[in-house]
Amino acid sequence: MVVVKRRRLHSQTFSDIDSDDDPSYVPSDCSPNRSDSDTFPVPDEMETGNEEPHVKTQVTSSKSAQCSEEKERKQPYKKPYRFCMYCKKHMSKLSDHLKNKHRNEERIQYALGLPTKERIEEFDRIRKEGTFEVNKIRAKDDNPQFQRERSSASNSVVICSNCSGAYSAPYMRRHKHHCEYKSDSSKPSMHIPASFLSVMNDTDSSFISEILSKFRKDEVGQLCQGDPILREIGKRLWLKQNKKPDKKTEVRKSVMTDMRRLARLYLTLISVQDNLGPLLVKAGNVSDLMQRSNFQHLEVAVQQYTERREEGEGLGVKAGLKLGVFYLLKSSSKILKAMYLMDDKDNEADQIDRFTAVLDLQHNQIFGDATYHLNKRREEKLRRPSGQPLEADIKAVRDYTTSRITELLEDTLAFWDRHRFVELRDCLVSRLTLFNARRGGEPSRLYIKCWQDAKEGAWLDKQQLATLDSIDKALVEDLKVGYQLGKGKHLIPVLFPTDTHEALDKLINKEIRSCAGIGNDNNYLFPTTSGANSHVSGWHALDNICECVTLDDKQSITATKNRHRVSVLFALSHIPERERSFIFKHLGHSQETNENIYQAPLALKEVTVVGRQLQMMDKGDIMDPATSSEQVKPQVKPQVKPQVKPQVKPSGRNYTQWRKSDEKELLAHFKEYINGEATKKLPGRKEIFIFLKAHPSFPHPWQTVRTKMMNVVYNKNKRFPKVV
User: Fold this and answer.
1) Distance (Å, rounded) from C-alpha 210 to C-alpha 189?
2) According to the model, what pLDDT value does residue 654 have?
């Protein structure tokens, strides 16, 4: 269509043309310079090749297009209506409406009594709460259209956990700092997708903010957020954190891992339908995994999900993942059965029982290879002495941490910023983890109260302290002992060496923690600096320290491998059996677990003890069982020196065979007691241990030495002359 601009008739006056009384007059807002002509469309039959002088044919110019775009941009802003929580209606001016219609409400009266700035902030909170209520109702629609505080081109709407305001996801980064600055709480604000409002209530708000909102926007993450059965299973697993408040971070990671595993296993179950055919029972959610009729599909899905596809790994199955899937299916089945029973769905609950029965019967066929590979890996890799940390590397890490702690404390003029605080924190976590042979996550989750109690000696009995000698009292001053909660009702002991005492006092200083960005409500001894109320990861703290030290084998410096190392060193040392129980209790396991899981096979003892006996049997020289192998000197020559058999009385009493050299050393050391020159009649346990420490190759325990000295002293007048 062609636009024709026709000049006005000369008979019309200027006043007639611009008169406001003309109903057909429409003012232009495209350009301030208006021409004297009107523009109107011309039909196609009027388009001719010859134009009259007073008619001008023109194609729409770029100027008119620019005017139309400018007109669209200058459309007046339409203020959105806001929801009133009291009368349940949308109002154009909510603040005026509240002042006029609801001024008798207690909260409105409180807001009107505030200064101007605080009054505006209070009305903003009321407006956000009304928008939150509207979004909760709209979230139940099939295609919800959410209200928000600010207009945005983004369609994703998230809810702030602090102020309940609705914003676009890209804007939340800016709002987070503004909201934390205005909020009285030190808890960092988190964003929750508005789509979760339909399932959100007071009991599972933490589950949504801590778990559901943290998943990635991929296929697995969307399934975790959208599947109702999977959400319910995850919420039940999340309730464990109420029983383990000290392990909230570990529980959160565990719950998210379990939900992702179930989601990925379900997606694999759907994909195997191409080869095995459709599922016999299909509910369209994760409950299809726990159906007995779908067990063949589940078996193939487990094999495909846990198959190792990386080259050069050696094993064809991810053993740890596969065994974890078995226990996850067991726990999920229990949760699903409880859900069915509470909803009076007895038939569905019976089907879950039948599924778990089939799962137990087929355990060896499906998961037997995973159990075998885990046991094999433990015996071949974890328990080998070659996989344990080198003593030189352990010493290098210890020297670095102690020296670096001293350097940080000596620089009194340095400002304690976040980087300096993190370095000192990682050094202390590394020092305590390796010194105590603890698991990686145990010292890292200590509370401030634990160190304060250890420093004050709250766990020590004052009456028993008075009975200690000077050496033990000095040890108590150097090593402070504290306890933290472990599994079940167990208490985990933690020893604080003397080189960490001053540094720990620095970490709990309120001014230093404030400068490092630690919240006031974070009571962990080793907190994170991200503003969250959590503790540092012990593995990452130790790894950060190892990056700063030159090590021969960095991969072996872990908390678990250090526990293997300490278990072997304790087994090789000459520690009385009664004292070994305290060591096992400190490590947090029994003697059987220490021998079969942590402790490496004592190959050296196998050669020197068992090998010697077998070698003597092979040559026909059978050793008397009553003679200890520790009393036999190592033989350089192949010929074994015959042993002297002890004289055994008919009464059946066991006697210890003493060598003359051992007896001579003993009598020479304790000659004062034999001659009656000592203050006491018999040497005590402390004196005997000093003697054993001076003679590390002495074969007899301290109880045998005490009995020997008692016999010598009582019979000195009959059998032994005075020792000169």
Assistant:
1) 11
2) 63
What end-to-end distance do the CA atoms of the chain give, in Å?
A: 136
Cα–Cα distance, 123 to 105 (Å, whole number) = 13
Distance CA 546, CA 147 (A): 51
Residues contacting residue 708 through CB under 8 Å, at least 6 positions apart: 656, 658, 663, 666, 700
SS (H, E, C) 608-621: HHHHHHHHHHHCCC
Task: Give the residue from 9, 540, 294 showing the smallest Cα distance to 526.
Answer: 540
Strands 90-91 and 55-58, sheet pairing: unpaired
What does the pLDDT read at residue 353? 92
Give the torsion sign (CA, 676, 679, 684, 688).
negative
Q: Which residues of the chain have pLDDT under 50?
A: 1-61, 185-186, 202-203, 312-314, 625-652, 720, 723-724
DSSP 502-558: HHHHHHT-HHHHHHTT--TT--BSSB-SSSSS-B--HHHHHHHHHHTS--S-GGG-S
Q: What contacts 24+ positions apart, CB below 8 Å, involve 57-60?
A: 57/2, 57/3, 57/4, 58/2, 58/3, 58/4, 58/5, 59/2, 59/3, 60/3
Report the pLDDT value the prediction gives residue 269, as an integer from 0 to 100. 94
Domain boundaries, the chain: 2-73, 201-295+316-366, 390-556, 558-598, 601-642, 655-724
| Predicted local confidence at residue 520, as pLDDT | 82
The token duo for 514 is 């404030």
Provide φ and ψ at 458, rounded to 5°. Answer: -70, -25
Burial 631-666 (b: 16+ CB within 10 A, else e): ebeeeeeeeeeeeeeeeeeeeeeeeeebeeebeeeb
Which one-letter amino acid corresponds to residue 412?
T
DSSP letters for 646-680: PP--TT----PPPPHHHHHHHHHHTHHHHTT-SSS
Residue with tokens 């000049």: 7
